[in-house]
Write a structure and sequence with these properties.
The protein is mainly alpha-helical. It has one domain. It has two helices and two strands, in the order H-H-E-E. A two-stranded antiparallel ribbon has the order 1-2. A hairpin with a 2-residue loop joins strand 1 and strand 2. It starts with 8 loop residues before the first helix and ends with a strand.
């Protein structure tokens, strides 16, 4: 039998940060939809954004920036956005 996955306080913190970012992105799409022609995020892209643990892909010590609504340098001239 599979062992149940435990959820740590950190996991809950990152989940809240992801939800906050998605809420902001949803609001941005809704606010700009009239002139962009896109009033909402593609559902598959939104699902991926909800599942990807962005804080695991940024330099150590900058995890708290991973869910901010702006591009973030991840090294080698690359950004996560």
């Amino acid at each position: 039998m599979a062992k149940p996955k435990t959820v740590s306080p950190d996991d809950r913190l990152w989940e809240r940060a992801r939800r906050k970012l998605l809420t902001q992105i949803d609001a941005d799409f809704a606010a700009t939809g009239d002139y962009t022609g896109r009033a909402r995020v593609n559902p598959l892209i939104r699902l991926a954004m909800a599942r990807v643990p962005r804080h695991l892909f940024v330099p150590p010590g900058e995890e708290f920036l991973a869910y901010e609504d702006h591009a973030l340098a991840i090294g080698y001239g690359q950004t996560i956005s």
